Amino acid sequence: MPMTSYSIPPVIANDLLLCPQEPGLIALIRADVACVKARDPAARSTLEILLTYPGVHAVIFHRLSHLLWRRHLRFAARVLSWLGRLLTNVDIHPGATIGRRFFIDHGAGVVIGETAEIGDDVTLYHGVTLGGTTWSGGKRHPTLEDGVLVGAGAKILGPITVGRGARVGANSVVIADVPPDMTVIGIPGKVVKDPRHRRRIDGRIDLEHHLIPDPVGDAIAVLLDRIDFLEARVNHMQGKLRGHPNAPENERPEGIAS
Fold first, then answer.
1. Could you give the CA distance from residue 213 to residue 147 in angstroms, rounded to a whole number?
2. CB 182 within 8 Å of CB 156
3. pLDDT tens readout for residues 59-99
4. Which of 23, 27, 41, 34 lies closest to 56, judged by CA?
5. DSSP state of 242
6. Three-class SS of residue 79?
7. Burial of 18 (0-12, 13-18, 19+ CB in 10 A)
8. Does residue 154 contact residue 130 with C-beta atoms inside 8 Å?
9. Using CA atoms, how far apart are residues 227 and 223, in angstroms rounded to an integer?
């Protein structure tokens, strides 16, 4: 009986780490675990990360449920995603596309919608929402490009794009595109920091999302400096006026007569 040739389907080959174009499931999970040490100084060992980090658990659940989603096992994917949410308090739709080395720090209350797209080396803190703004089908959730960092409690809504290397400040509400390498804060979110003024840390991911400018505080500081300058000028002019012969007697220094 002649032998027939058999080729492994590309999706299955990728899952078994036999496809060189994309990392397989195991490689993705290993990278997700390994990146935690570079972004969280509290992480001491791989075992500790695997056992005690709900954000890592949520990502692992998503990797598995997304695999089922891609194979059109939609109900099974939703059940597995629900189980992941039940155990981790992180709600990631199995249809969301997530890149390599994804880290959710603390994990509590994170929501990622179905059509969200997340690049490589992205970090989210607790309470972040990548949500939609319409009940229509199609693309309705944000796209986060490589290296984006989103602070705690931030909401990024609609089919917008947060550019590569951008930072979103805590509790911001972003409803418009963010250029690459910029920092955005506020409600609604506004770009406030030029990339030339951002600190770099030897090529590592910049986690200093707390070092964001305070435009209101800066404006108040400028006003206070101006007030100090004007008070000094007034005092100087008053001093000169008291010594002037035509000044009123009650404003002249003692010993000066008319």
1. 20
2. no
3. 999 999 999 999 999 999 999 999 999 999 999 999 999 99
4. 34
5. H
6. helix
7. exposed
8. no
9. 6
User: What CA–CA distance (Å, rounded) separates 242 from 256?
Assistant: 10
Give the three-class secondary structure for 95.
Answer: coil
What's the CA gap between 157 and 141, in Å, rounded? 6
End-to-end Cα, the chain, rounded Å: 132
User: What number of other Cβ atoms are within 10 A of residue 14's Cβ?
Assistant: 20
| 136, two tokens | 């229509």
State how far Cα 228 lies from the chain centre.
39
Q: Classify residue 15 by burial, with Cβ atoms within 10 Å: 0-12, 13-18, 19+.
A: middle
Tokens of 189: 């979110």
Structure tokens at 149: 């960092």
Top-confidence residue, 218 or 85: 85
Q: What share of the chain is helix, strand, coil (3-state, %, to 5)?
A: 35, 15, 50
Cβ-based burial of 175 (10 A; exposed 0-12, middle 13-18, buried ≥19): middle
pTM over 0.70: no
* Omega of the bond leading into 188 within 30 degrees of 0 (cis): yes
- Rounded to the nearest 10°, the torsion over CA 129, 139, 97, 110 is 10
Query: Across 44-196, where does the E strand assignment appear?
Result: 91-92, 97-98, 103-104, 111-112, 117-118, 123-124, 129-131, 143-144, 149-150, 155-157, 161-162, 167-168, 173-174, 183-185, 190-193
